[in-house]
Amino acid sequence: AQTVTQSQPEMSVQEAETVTLSCTYDTSENNYYLFWYKQPPSRQMILVIRQEAYKQQNATENRFSVNFQKAAKSFSLKISDSQLGDTAMYFCAFILNRDDKIIFGKGTRLHILP
Amino acid sequence: SQTIHQWPATLVQPVGSPLSLECTVEGTSNPNLYWYRQAAGRGLQLLFYSVGIGQISSEVPQNLSASRPQDRQFILSSKKLLLSDSGFYLCAWKKLDPTGPFFGPGTRLTVL
């Protein structure tokens, strides 16, 4: 069975700093997608970034980038120049190409401090 | 562009009452549809998913059920709510390529 692990339940960083959120996953398959979602206090789930497993190049969306290490089954999210609006729960998620289920980690609560 | 709607936004129901939550997607066809539940401060639990009209897969045995009467409509139901059904219910959709998954705004359910 596929699993997603986020080992940091909670983190705090100062505004403008860079922060990295960790995610590891477990699968024996090669074809899958990985995602990071942001859930602010409104509880709306927002797709932040997506990575296809067959792509070696790390995905980037503005201040958000990932470090995808397929052999290590690691998919960390880096937030550069963090802003107060980045305060949220962040969830790592995984989908197999052959499957339809979206598997989520338990989340990391990130606080950006002024 | 695609949008996903959920209603109601909030709901307070007594124990033992029925439930019907609705999710609709606009701007796409034949999406995969999902129902998740999130307890306060917790992760997301997959309840049901559907790959087509009338096709429902259940992940967790419970007193909830789901139906997909139309391509872009997904309904979560219960005949008798339990206290443990309280939570935040999220609907999501994705395509096979995959586009998404994208989530709706959610429904906050309180069972008293």
Could you characterize the architecture of this molecule?
The complex is a heterodimer of chains A (about 110) and B (about 110). With about 110 residues, chain A is mostly beta strands. Chain A has strands at about 5, 10-15, 20, 25, 30-40, 45-50, 60, 65-70, 75-80, 90-95, 100-105, 110-114. The relative contact order of chain A is 0.34. With about 110 residues, chain B is mostly beta strands. At the A-B interface, strand 5, strand 10 and strand 11 of A face strand 4, strand 5, strand 9 and strand 10 of B.
What share of residues of chain B is helical?
Answer: under 10%
Second rung of CATH, namely the architecture of chain B:
Sandwich
For the record, the count of structural domains of chain B works out to: 1
**Strand count, sense and closure of the main sheet of chain A?**
6 strands, mixed
In the CATH hierarchy, what is the superfamily of chain A?
Immunoglobulins
Describe what is shown at a glance.
Chain A is mostly beta strands and 114 residues long. Chain A contains no helices and twelve strands.
Feature tags:
heterodimer, A: 114 residues, mainly beta, Immunoglobulin-like, 6-stranded mixed beta sheet, 4-stranded antiparallel beta sheet, 12 strands, globular, B: 112 residues, 7-stranded mixed beta sheet, 11 strands
Topology of helices and strands:
The complex is a heterodimer of chains A (114) and B (112).
Chain A: E1 3-5, E2 10-14, E3 19-21, E4 24-26, E5 32-39, E6 46-52, E7 60-61, E8 64-69, E9 74-79, E10 88-96, E11 102-104, E12 108-113
Parallel strand pairs in A: 2-12
Antiparallel strand pairs in A: 1-4, 3-9, 5-6, 5-10, 7-8, 8-9, 10-11, 10-12
Chain B: E1 3-7, E2 10-13, E3 19-26, E4 32-38, E5 44-52, E6 55-58, E7 64-70, E8 73-78, E9 87-94, E10 102-103, E11 107-111
Parallel strand pairs in B: 2-11
Antiparallel strand pairs in B: 1-3, 3-8, 4-5, 4-9, 5-6, 7-8, 9-10, 9-11
